[in-house]
Amino acid sequence: MALNLSPETGVKLTKKDRAHVLKKMKQGWKASCMIPDYVFDENGDIQIASDMNRRVVKIVKFKDDGIHFEKALKNKTLRIPWFKIIEINTSKEIRDGIEIKMNDGRYVAFSIYNSYKIKQITEFIANYIVEKKNS
What are residue 63's DSSP bridge partners? Predict the structure, then answer.
């Protein structure tokens, strides 16, 4: 499940960069996201409104139980547990983004807000997701 983003030549993440990225992943990172169009019915159950994903800007957090998209569902957090992730690819919809396919056939794509070493950071995040999924 290697993700080849062809990083800028000669630019690498330093140890300090990796520590900073890990800290930002835990506390939350503003990201442009493509999430499934989930809605709640009158019973409070989650339903899919349309087959198209919708573009939103949300805070993405990486926690022990999965990936959290804050306030993605009105005022609720969309959580993707590690075991639901089946594949990680580069996103065709979002520039320098990651597309995460889930076992229910849906996918989520996101790209963090950062211009400095964006490809290296995105690859680091993808490797982190693979590592968490496999452990």
Answer: 66
Six-digit token string for 16? 């300090």
Q: What is the DSSP secondary structure assignment for residue 83, as one 8-state letter?
A: G
Mean local confidence (pLDDT), 97-106? 89
In this predicted model, what pLDDT tens digit does every residue of 55-66 receive, in sequence order? 888 899 999 999
81, 34, 44, 25 alpha-carbon torsion, rounded to 10°: 40
For the sheet containing 85-90, what is the strand order? 76-81, 66-73, 46-63, 29-40, 107-112, 98-102, 85-90
Please state whether beta strands 76-81 and 98-102 pair in parallel, antiparallel, or not at all (unpaired): unpaired
Instruction: Determine the Cα–Cα distance for residues 130 and 24; give it in Å rounded to an integer.
Output: 18
Is the pLDDT at 44 greater than 60? The verdict is: yes
Question: Which stretches of 8-134 are DSSP H helices?
Answer: 15-27, 118-134
Tokens of 95: 């520039």
CA distance 37 to 55: 9
